[in-house]
């Protein structure tokens, strides 16, 4: 203890000091296993450069708007996955739960079937169906105590079966409802696109400045003001750049706005509310959470509900994109892509660590790889192998980070 | 300390079994405001079990719990907290992935009407509490507790228990993992809690520590209460005797049973 004292004094003095000290602190944390968002940023840059040299159209405004549409379903589902991983559980049913939502939305809008409901009502029902399935599965996990791996594996089979049974005879349901098809296909006008960027940046600035002010009022260290402003400028700039690029093509797709909304809402719930805090606590040490009076069972059930609900919304987006649902709804690589997106985005499979924004970055990386490989004309085989390798790298990084942190902890 | 008023917390005839293991057998126990009660006994004597029963972690099989003379039932940690009973657990109940502030407020976060966390006041009060307990080695209250040393973690756990305006504080082997200086600090802290008028229960295997801070000593042996001793009127030898062999009276009771 006595030998460590000078270092501690130094560190305490460094708090709130200049940028150099902050970067030194970041570097220390990095060596201690907290790699932050660096791998994701490096990955996105590397993938962009690679495909750009293979096929320059990869970096174009048209392809960017296409990419947003392609990554939307997986990204939205991955937001739900983040919550499930944060409490240290897994949900393998999300693929076919999203398929169920697609079937629900398609069935409810069917003209002449007696239940031709307005699109928005059908969408709400589809999301609610996903959430209800999540609540059911979550209750079995939380109350009965069956491992989530098994419960949701059973769910995977059951919901796939339900989809096959429902679509069995006709095999496909077309979607004619405009509201439903708009979800994935509507494009905002240029001015609405700018409005989105402005609202996003203003909201971000308000949140960051609000935190800054309340800390200052309480006499707490507020961090470096330059970095605070830099954060607003950086993320706000990204939003404006994205809108600019989209407006260069057809405009900002509505799904882009949906992604943004879901990710921001999810990040807010996870990071700034008591519920989110309890989610992290359950994932970090469920027994400690229980002793602290947190209703662990309720948290688990709610998290599976979120997972199911997000899968439902993702299923609506995917159905809307195809203007139909068929027997493959929710199948293929959807499940694994969604879980991979969360993990690649830095969410730990061991529970308690990660951020909702990871779903966005992971979804982006998976979407970019898939989009680029299609553009270059490689086969699906290459796509699977590449995605698999990226996933492996992400999980390895997570495991190494955990070991490093455990080592640095003593 | 007023012996005529009812004890702050009292257990009567409390039993608790885990399958065939009788962890507590008809145990009586009490602690009063302003006193430090030590709870001692061999490994497996039932000390932690007694604490967890009072904290609402386990439900008792039979017997009664009284708070200030009124019978109470404690169904969960929330009930215990409502009565003002706080526990520092032997197996530290901290979340490694959360930072110091988040752990201090775990389950009792300050929030506005729409459940938005109020981080600033929580951080401020955490800093103040740690300062008032002279916990000075923690660099930042925003670092995850996984990065703290064993002693620092223990300090956080103790600080969490005393941050709320409690009536009864249980500390289950709070100094087991600590070095000499930090042990001294925690013991000072325990004494101060008693002087502030709280009812304090401390579990320890170190009789030197026990005799330094406790006013009274309750000895558990194989799940039974074998005696309550006033520190002024006993010595370590007698306590060791009670821990290992029980008292003559208790031995008789065992034979009868
Ligand atoms: N959750 C449990 N399930 C089954 N048996 C238990 C459980 N908790 C405690 N026991 C048993 O109850 C008895 C008392 O255990 P307890 O932890 O209360 O002892 P203790 O006095 O705290 O011991 P130590 O000094 O080692 O901490 C032991 O025989 C133990 O094996
Ligand atoms: Mg114990």
Report the CATH architecture of chain B: 3-Layer(aba) Sandwich
- Helical segment tally of chain A? 17
Indicate the proportion of strand residues of chain A. Answer: under 5%
Q: What's the level 1 CATH class of chain B? A: Alpha Beta
State the end-to-end CA separation of chain B: 35 Å
* Fraction of helical residues of chain B: 25-40%
Q: Provide the low-confidence segments of chain B as ranges.
A: none
Total number of helical segments of chain B? 9
Compute the separation of the termini of chain A in Å: 12 Å
Largest interface: A-B, 41 and 41 residues
Task: Characterize the biggest β-sheet of chain A.
Answer: 2 strands, antiparallel
- Poorly predicted spans of chain A: 1-15
Description of the molecule:
The complex is a heterodimer of chains A (410) and B (257). In chain A, helix 4 packs antiparallel against helix 14, helix 5 packs parallel to helix 7 and helix 15 packs across helix 16. Chain A has a two-stranded antiparallel ribbon. By secondary structure, chain A is an all-alpha fold. Chain A is built from 17 helices and 2 strands. Chain A has a single domain, classed as ABC transporter involved in vitamin B12 uptake, BtuC, CATH 1.10.3470. Chain A is 76% helix and 1% strand. Chain B is an alpha/beta fold and 257 residues long. Chain B has one domain: 3-Layer(aba) Sandwich (Rossmann fold). Chain B is 35% helix and 24% strand. Chain B is built from 9 helices and 10 strands. Chain B has a 6-stranded mixed β-sheet, with helices on both faces. In chain B, strand 9 and strand 10 form a beta hairpin. The two termini of chain B are 35 Å apart. The relative contact order of chain B is 0.17. The site of adenosine-5'-triphosphate (ATP) has 12 residues of chain B, from strand 2 and helix 1.
């Amino acid at each position: 203890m006595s030998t460590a004292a000078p270092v501690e004094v130094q560190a305490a003095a460094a708090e709130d000091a200049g940028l150099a000290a902050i970067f030194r602190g970041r570097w220390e944390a990095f060596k201690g296993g907290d790699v932050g968002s660096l791998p994701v940023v490096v990955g996105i840059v590397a993938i962009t450069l690679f495909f750009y040299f293979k096929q320059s159209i990869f970096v174009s405004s048209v392809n960017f708007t296409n990419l947003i549409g392609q990554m939307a379903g997986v990204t939205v589902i991955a937001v739900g996955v983040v919550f499930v991983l944060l409490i240290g559980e897994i949900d393998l049913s999300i693929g076919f739960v999203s398929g169920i939502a697609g079937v629900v939305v398609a069935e409810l809008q069917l003209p002449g079937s007696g239940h031709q409901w307005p699109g928005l009502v059908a969408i709400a029902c589809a999301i609610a169906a996903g959430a209800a399935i999540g609540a059911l599965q979550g209750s079995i996990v939380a109350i009965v105590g069956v491992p989530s791996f098994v419960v949701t594996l059973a769910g995977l089979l059951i919901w796939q079966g339900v989809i096959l049974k429902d679509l069995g005879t006709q095999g496909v349901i077309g979607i004619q409802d405009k509201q439903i098809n708009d979800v994935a296909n509507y494009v905002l006008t240029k001015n609405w696109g700018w409005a989105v960027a402005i609202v996003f940046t203003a909201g971000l600035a308000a949140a960051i400045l609000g935190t800054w002010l309340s800390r200052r009022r309480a006499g707490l260290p507020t961090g470096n003001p330059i970095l605070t402003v830099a954060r607003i400028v950086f993320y706000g700039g990204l939003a404006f750049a994205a809108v600019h690029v989209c407006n260069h093509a057809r405009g900002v797709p509505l799904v882009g706005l949906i992604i943004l909304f879901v990710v921001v809402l999810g990040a807010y719930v996870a990071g700034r509310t008591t519920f989110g805090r309890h989610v992290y606590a359950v994932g970090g040490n469920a027994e400690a959470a229980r002793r602290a009076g947190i209703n662990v069972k309720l948290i688990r059930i709610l998290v599976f509900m979120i997972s199911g609900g997000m899968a439902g919304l993702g299923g609506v987006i995917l159905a809307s994109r195809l203007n139909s649902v068929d027997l493959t709804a929710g199948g293929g690589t959807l499940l694994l892509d969604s879980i991979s997106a969360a993990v690649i985005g830095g969410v730990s499979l061991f529970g308690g660590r990660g951020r909702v924004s990871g779903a966005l970055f992971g979804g982006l990386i998976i979407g970019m790889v898939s989009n680029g490989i299609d553009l270059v004309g490689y086969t699906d085989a290459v796509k699977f192998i590449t995605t698999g390798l990226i996933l492996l790298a992400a999980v390895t990084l997570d495991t190494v980070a955990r070991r490093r942190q455990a080592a640095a902890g003593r | 300390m007023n012996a005529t008023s009812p004890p702050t917390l009292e257990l009567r005839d409390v039993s608790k079994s885990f399958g065939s293991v009788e962890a507590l057998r008809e145990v009586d126990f009490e602690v009063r405001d302003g006193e430090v009660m030590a709870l001692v006994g061999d490994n497996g004597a039932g000390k932690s079990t007694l604490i967890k029963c009072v904290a609402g972690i386990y439900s008792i099989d039979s017997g009664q719990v009284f708070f200030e003379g009124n019978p109470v039932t404690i169904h969960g940690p929330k009930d215990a907290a409502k009565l003002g009973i706080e526990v520092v657990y032997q197996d530290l109940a901290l979340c490694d992935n959360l930072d110091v502030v988040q752990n201090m407020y775990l389950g009792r976060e300050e929030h506005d009407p729409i459940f938005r966390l109020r981080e600033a006041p929580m951080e401020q009060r955490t800093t103040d509490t740690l300062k008032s307990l002279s916990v000075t080695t923690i660099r930042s209250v925003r670092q995850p507790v996984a990065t703290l040393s064993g002693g620092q973690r223990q300090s956080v756990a103790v600080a969490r228990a005393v941050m709320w305006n409690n009536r009864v504080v249980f500390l289950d082997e709070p100094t087991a993992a600590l070095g000499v200086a930090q042990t001294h600090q925690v013991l000072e802290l325990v004494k101060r809690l008693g002087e502030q008028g709280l009812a304090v229960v401390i579990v320890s295997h170190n009789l030197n520590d026990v005799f330094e801070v406790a006013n009274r000593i309750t000895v558990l042996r194989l799940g039974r209460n074998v005696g309550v001793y006033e520190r002024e009127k006993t010595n370590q030898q007698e306590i060791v005797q009670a821990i290992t062999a029980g008292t003559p009276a208790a031995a008789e009771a065992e034979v009868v049973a």
